């Protein structure tokens, strides 16, 4: 619990504040959100309280086994304002550490922790006997489960035949798969040993990587891995175009949506062999498999994060929120480099990925280079109007919202809340609409037959960027499309009918109402009104673009390629 005492900071607490714990040792720094439960404004001060349990031994990644002393400060953010190491008064009695493995000392505005490595690791003899007892108990449980296996089979047969009710979670259409899944589940519960195809593949994945690590790293080998795409597109396409003619490089691609559960044995071998023998591995999205293995020290892992800027929270910033990354997980934390669009984004990505700002490089985003290529833009326009001649000479509205739901499998968009018939009826006839839903969304936007010449659904079109070159107005919500649109100075309407719900479930790095570079609409009537009055708040666009793009020169790909070559040596 505490209060902000800084006279400059305190007035900014006019809305929901962002407080971040900032941990620093001599090798790394780490930013983690402080989960607030209460904020009170009174008599010119802001008082806050919050509670969360942090694993101090897992704060840092690369130096985690050194157990170095570290300091903690508080950082503060609001709208586009971010201040580090703020002045704060926290009651020391209510700032707790175990005081055995980590000694806590308060020093003015920050807190210092001194780890006791011996206490953390405990006695080697004690640890040996604890592990031995666990192994013996586990072996006994396993023998009991083996003895009971015929009973598990009999019970599964009774449940399959309907004599005993089958639990709802075993709902596969295949009878044999339900039978096998229930039998293995009963065996796993008794043996306390997880037995499934997933656990076998994960074991094989790790063993396969250990085997291929026996081979030498190819100093000229670079592997691109993507779970987002099955072709060379996006950032990968721009980077590959720059390096494909280099005869000295060994370039390999792994492009599919398969996580370990759905990988074939051949795909597991290909993935692990590539990771074990490559000098550089490049990603463009969260790739969970890469975090099941410890990449070799000489292999550099580069994350070409697909999104520009920092808008919706992700990774560790979503601590305590649905589908947020728990603080101890190793996900994201093994990146050697993350490329971002601006220096301003580095603190957000440091927090989201759980890595040091030293590992984040403001190269720019390769796929945005097309926005500075006049010839490319003209070709994209010509191609679009050739395919859609009814749109020539019209004012184009691009409706491109993001999805609702937490993951791809549950993604949706409430299409009934964007009634194209009602909107077209109430705006001038020279406006036409392109519908472009997120790739995760399978809902089809209803388009009346009478509007086929004014509204088209291009949700299946893989290239969203190309549509921006013919767009006069964008209607979106919480999509990162806002960054690309700002590069072209396109007027924007933010259709945020579920803003408060979205903030509670997902949230943003900055205050949405103060931050977005356009008009906010809460209902369809607001959209129609903004279009008719041409009220788009366009004065917000330029400052927004300045904040999130360090270099607008069309050379982001060159800077990324240089980063890769520097690590290939």
Number of helices: 16
Could you say which structural class the secondary elements and strand pairing correspond to? Answer: alpha/beta
Question: What is the global morphology?
Answer: globular
Let me know the largest β-sheet: 6 strands, antiparallel
What is the overall pLDDT average?
A: 88
Rg, Å, rounded: 27 Å
Low-pLDDT parts are none
Provide the helix percentage: 25-40%
Strand share of the residues? 15-25%
Amino-to-carboxy terminus distance: 50 Å
What are the main properties of this structure?
16 helices; 19% strand; six-stranded parallel sheet; alpha/beta; 22 strands; globular; six-stranded antiparallel sheet; 569 residues
Overall description:
The protein has 569 residues and is α/β, with parallel strands linked by helices. Helices cover 32% and strands 19% of the residues. The chain is globular.
């Amino acid at each position: 619990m505490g209060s902000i005492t800084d006279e400059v900071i305190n007035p900014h607490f006019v809305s929901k504040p962002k407080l971040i714990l900032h941990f620093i040792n001599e090798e790394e720094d780490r930013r983690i959100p402080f989960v607030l439960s209460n904020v009170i404004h009174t008599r010119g001060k802001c008082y806050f309280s919050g509670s969360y349990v942090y694993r101090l031994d897992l704060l840092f990644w690369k130096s985690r086994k050194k157990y170095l002393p570290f300091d903690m400060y508080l950082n503060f953010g609001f709208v586009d304002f971010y201040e580090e190491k703020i002045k704060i008064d926290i009651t020391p009695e209510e700032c707790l550490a175990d005081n055995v493995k980590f000694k806590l000392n308060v020093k003015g505005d920050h807190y210092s922790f001194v780890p006791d490595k011996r206490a953390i690791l405990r006695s080697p003899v004690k640890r040996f006997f604890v592990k031995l007892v666990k192994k013996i108990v586990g072996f006994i449980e396993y023998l009991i489960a083996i003895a009971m296996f015929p009973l598990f089979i009999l019970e599964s047969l009774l449940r399959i035949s309907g004599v005993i009710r089958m639990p709802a979670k075993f709902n596969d259409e295949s009878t044999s798969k339900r039978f096998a899944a229930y039998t293995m589940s009963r065996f796993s519960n008794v043996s306390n040993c997880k037995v499934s195809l997933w656990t076998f593949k994960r074991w094989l994945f790790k063993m396969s990587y250990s085997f291929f690590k026996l081979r030498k790293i190819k100093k000229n080998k670079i592997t691109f891995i993507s779970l987002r795409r099955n072709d060379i597109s996006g950032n990968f396409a721009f980077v590959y175009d720059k390096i494909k003619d280099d005869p000295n490089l060994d370039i390999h691609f792994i492009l599919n949506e398969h996580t370990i559960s759905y990988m074939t044995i051949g795909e597991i071998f290909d993935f692990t062999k590539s990771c074990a023998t490559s000098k550089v591995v490049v990603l463009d999205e969260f790739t969970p498999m890469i975090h099941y293995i410890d990449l070799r020290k000489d292999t550099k892992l580069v994350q070409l994060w697909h999104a520009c800027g920092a808008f919706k929270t992700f990774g560790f910033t979503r601590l305590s929120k649905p589908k947020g990354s728990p603080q101890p997980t190793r996900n994201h934390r093994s990146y050697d480099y993350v490329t971002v669009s601006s220096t301003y984004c580095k603190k957000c990505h440091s927090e989201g990925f759980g890595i040091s700002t030293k590992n984040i490089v403001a190269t720019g985003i390769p796929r945005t280079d097309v926005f500075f290529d006049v010839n490319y833009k003209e070709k994209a326009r010509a191609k679009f109007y050739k395919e859609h001649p009814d749109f020539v000479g019209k004012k184009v509205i691009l409706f491109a919202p993001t999805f609702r739901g937490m993951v791809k499998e549950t993604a949706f968009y409430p299409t009934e809340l964007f009634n194209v018939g009602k909107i077209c009826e109430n705006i001038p006839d020279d406006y036409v609409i392109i519908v472009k839903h997120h790739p995760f969304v399978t809902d089809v936007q209803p388009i009346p037959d009478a509007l086929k010449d004014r509204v088209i659904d291009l949700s299946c079109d893989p290239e969203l960027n190309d549509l921006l070159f013919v767009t006069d107005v964008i209607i979106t919500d919480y999509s990162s499309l806002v960054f690309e649109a700002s590069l072209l100075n396109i007027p924007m309407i933010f259709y945020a009918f579920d803003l408060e719900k979205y903030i509670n479930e997902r949230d943003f790095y900055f205050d949405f109402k103060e931050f977005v570079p356009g008009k906010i609409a809460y209902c369809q009537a607001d959209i129609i009104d903004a279009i008719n009055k041409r009220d788009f708040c366009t004065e917000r666009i330029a400052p927004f673009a300045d904040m999130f793009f360090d270099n607008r020169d069309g050379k982001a790909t060159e800077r990324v390629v240089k980063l890769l070559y520097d690590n290939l040596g």
